[in-house]
Design a protein that fits this description.
RNaseH_sf, alpha+beta, 29% helix, Tc1-like_DDE_dom, 4 helices, two-stranded antiparallel sheet, Nucleotidyltransferase, domain 5
């Protein structure tokens, strides 16, 4: 390998590796939080933006989830954020018996299928963009959610099974002459 004789392009380190930065879409005093719920049976996502990550907005989001799923039980797999388990939220849940919380163990976010969707969502809606105000984040969230929902598929935890492919057998006949 020949050493560089010119400075690297922006976004690249001197040794030729791409510099990766965490996405920062909540700068300044006007933060915007994105709530999301993934329906794993068909891959449809529901998102909502809010100015805070508190119990009131969480309950508002749960109401959207309940409205989007009018029949059957709803299992919300979530982390242990205080707004998810506050007295206010638990009281609200008593009036909504179809919604049941399932808390994932601390430090095991990979157990939640939603995390895979968040990765795809951040790349689609937020990566490499600058937002002038919270309304721009809301708009990007709505557009990205609609795009991802248009090609949604059921979510399955783990790696997909390898494809089963039948190989056609080819018979090769070798004719030879012994002289």
């Amino acid at each position: 390998m020949i050493p560089r004789t010119f400075p690297p392009a922006p976004g690249w380190s001197p040794d030729g590796h791409r510099i990766k930065n965490e996405i920062d879409y909540s700068r300044g005093p006007e933060k915007t939080w994105v709530y999301g719920a993934l329906r794993i049976r068909d891959g449809q996502e529901l998102t909502m933006t809010a100015t805070s990550r508190n119990s009131a907005f969480y309950q508002q989001f749960l109401q959207l989830v309940e409205d989007a799923n009018p029949v059957g039980d709803i299992y919300v797999i979530t982390d242990n954020l205080s707004s998810h388990n506050s007295v206010s939220t638990r009281t609200w849940l008593e009036d909504h018996p179809r919604i049941r919380h399932v808390f994932i163990p601390v430090g095991a976010c990979w157990l939640n299928l939603q995390e895979g969707w968040w990765r795809t969502f951040r790349k689609t809606a937020l990566a490499g963009r600058s937002f002038g105000d919270p309304d721009h984040i809301t708009h990007a969230t709505e557009v990205a959610t609609a795009q991802l929902n248009s090609r949604a598929r059921p979510w399955i935890w783990g790696r997909p099974a390898p494809p089963t492919r039948r190989l056609r057998r080819r018979y090769v006949y070798i004719l030879s002459r012994h002289g």
